[in-house]
Amino acid sequence: MRTRITLTEEDEWWVATDEETGVTSQGGTRVEALENLDEAVELHKGDGREPTNEELREIGINPENNKSGDTLPDALK
């Protein structure tokens, strides 16, 4: 199976887009952008998994203080 990926440089970022899914990601280098795109496409296709509470805490999110809501935040509308 062939996948078409568009890779562009915008300001200080490399932007990678999977043309089949429309998923886009970025990184500070070409390699980082492509690695991030791989992860984003996996999540898009449902092959990913939810992070554990420990993983959330490692990146500064307290899972006990965060919950899903019925509406999107303004930034995501």
TrEMBL record:
Residues 44-58 have a biased composition (Basic and acidic residues). InterPro entries: DUF7387 (IPR055811), TTHA1013/TTHA0281-like (IPR035069). Residues 44-77 are annotated as: Disordered. Transmembrane segments: none annotated. Coiled coil: none annotated. It holds the Pfam family DUF7387. This is Type II toxin-antitoxin system HicB family antitoxin.
